[in-house]
Amino acid sequence: MSGVLSRLLCTAAVTASAVLVPAPAVAAAAPGAGSVKQPDTRSVPHLLKDLQRLYRQAEKATETYNRTAEKLKKQRAEVARLDRQLARARHALQSSRREVGRLARQQYRSSTEISPYVRVLLARDPQHALDQGHVIGQLARERAKSMNQLTDAAKRADGLARKARKALDERITLTARQKKQRDDIQRRLKDVETLLASLSAGRLAELAEFERGGAAAAQKKFLASGALSDARPPTAKGDRAVRYAVEQIGKPYQWGGAGPRSYDCSGLTSQAWVHAGRAIPRTSQEQWAQLPHVPLTQLRPGDLVVYFPEATHVALYLGDGMVVQAPRPGTRIKVSPIAANPVLGAVRPDPGGQPLRSYAPPALPQAAANGSDTGYSAAAAPATDAR
């Protein structure tokens, strides 16, 4: 059973992002407190359904958190960009003010002199006086130009200041939203931990065995349906994405993780393609919404397989009906049957790429397929004598 079951929620909580406070462990009843934990009498199929529902809710919350994190990252960059522009605008405004001040002082000094008209009348060389008048006119035009520049600089600085304040307010709002989403994920994972804590090792073993049988049956039915075609070679970038994903096998799932030490489902797929030279959206829902869809009959290694009606889970297609995925909290990156979870469809990050003429799949590490495909196990569940 140890080859199938991996560490679960406590590990996920401990390895969560450094900004998070790990979820507390479920407290055992104090001796003599008079509180006796009642055994869970639900059927194994019912338990599996409940666990899968809780994990889907947690993963949906995770993808929402990731989407907010991406928006927050862009908003921080926008705030920094506006701050730089505002600094330059204020510098230009100060320069314009200094120039206008200089011209104002010059005009004040010139106001006590004889007017240009009288100077022409009294001059021995009227042409020279007219030339001087032209210079004076030019200075007047420069004053007008400097005033216009001052006005424009003031308007630009004021407009940028308003944009910068608005961008900062949006960043603060996103930060608060992300914290709320983080707390939501922790609560949902706590629900899973509580459910697992109520089960004995025997019940968990039954659950894992039932899950294995269900996944095998789903995969057999999926392959028999003809949903997958004969093997197709990947593109050069698809090959690089596959090899990167295979190199991550064995690393832990961490919600919000995008490498290099840990990943969540879309963190793995997005980083695999970044390392292949093609940036794609960060979350599974955005990958499903923005990348070109391809029929399952045309799948090739490197394509992304998206799961569940709300596109809350994603894996990278390996070939031969298998995917590389980061399943759920408490698991590690592994190779799984493509039908281990309900398939929504597939997308292709490089639709214009040319397939390789020859292709040798990467060698898989030992035990690459070990562990739960749906992300719960007995290994990290709190010990209990309940049955």
Strand line-up in the sheet with most strands: 1-6-2-3-4-5
Main sheet specs: 6 strands, antiparallel
CATH class of the largest domain: Alpha Beta
Q: What is the arithmetic mean of pLDDT? A: 76
Radius of gyration: 33 Å
SSE class: alpha+beta
User: What is the CATH architecture term of the largest domain?
Assistant: Alpha-Beta Complex
Give the overall shape. elongated
Q: What share of residues is helical?
A: 40-55%
Task: Quote the beta fraction.
Answer: 5-15%
Order of helices and strands: HHHHHHHHEEEEEE
Number of discrete domains: 2
Low-confidence stretches: 1-36, 376-387
Number of strands: 6
CATH superfamily of the largest domain: endopeptidase domain like (from Nostoc punctiforme)
- The name CATH uses for the topology of the largest domain is endopeptidase fold (from Nostoc punctiforme)
Between the first and last Cα atoms, what is the distance in angstroms? 18 Å
User: Number of helical segments?
Assistant: 8
GO biological process, one term: proteolysis
Region (Disordered): 346-387
Keywords: Coiled coil, Hydrolase, Protease, Signal, Thiol protease
Domain NlpC/P60: 235-359
